Amino acid sequence: MPDEITVESYQPEWPLRFQRIAQLLRAELGETAVRIDHIGSTSVPGLAAKPIIDIQISVRSFEPFEAIRLPLERCGFRWRSDNPDLTKRYFREGPGMARTHIHVRREGSWSEQLALLFRDYLRCHEEDRLAYAECKIRLAERYRDDRHGYVEAKRPFIWSMMQKADQWSQMVGWMPGERDA
Predict the structure, then answer these.
(1) Rounded mean pLDDT, 131-152
(2) What is the value of pTM for the model shown?
(3) DSSP class of 44
């Protein structure tokens, strides 16, 4: 079955979907999860997005991995051991579940901070949020059946936004706020 890329207008139900999942994750992971945050486009009010809930779980260490893997599997998520990004442990929804991506990252790591900064920057900058939405809609039409092409085509825009986010973070003294769950 093809994995067609669709970008939808912002849906107020996305944060509610995140909260339901996050409550289950928090109950299963306990203090293993230092933070549980809603990240990605569905976490930015007003931003058009693929209807996929991205969740970042911050942990002190990936070891012992069973302390992460087993609770997530009890919640129905599947570890993607073939994920080439070694800065995270990646999980996806199980059969019959709504599309969800779980990114387990080390607390304080560059990749953890990057996801939070990008989210917070877009939440605070409407003009850039709208430009990102236009970019995603345009690229989703062009790369509808080519997920890799879509991701690669977004990369220059995202990095230009990250440069702005970096400058903004220095001007305002940005720090990650309270965890979402």
Answers:
(1) 96
(2) 0.95
(3) S
